[in-house]
Design a protein that fits this description.
Largest sheet: 3 strands, antiparallel
Number of strands: 3
Structural class: alpha+beta
Shape: globular
Distance between the termini: 34 Å
Order of helices and strands: EEEHH
Helix content: 25-40%
């Protein structure tokens, strides 16, 4: 079984993403509004890390084997919380 390594990166558009080190396709992508970015300033990456950690923790608690890993169909203009 191969081991996957992940990294948190800042994308060219300023979004923050979690992706595999050997793949440029984000598994998770976080966008902050302009107001949030002004408020967070340099803490933006730290907040994104906490958000990603919390998501991974919930995923593990729910049991990864029981969750469907399908991409939901979402309109690009819609914000899903």
């Amino acid at each position: 079984m191969s081991l996957s390594l992940f990294e948190i990166v800042i994308l060219p558009d300023g979004d923050i993403a979690l992706q595999r080190t050997d793949d440029d396709s984000p598994l998770i992508r976080i966008s902050f509004s302009d107001d949030a970015e002004v408020f967070l300033e340099s803490a933006k990456v730290d907040v994104a890390k906490v958000m990603i950690d919390a998501g991974i923790e919930v995923f593990e608690e729910l049991g990864a084997e029981n969750m469907k890993l399908e991409s939901p169909r979402i309109d690009k203009d819609r914000v899903l919380h």
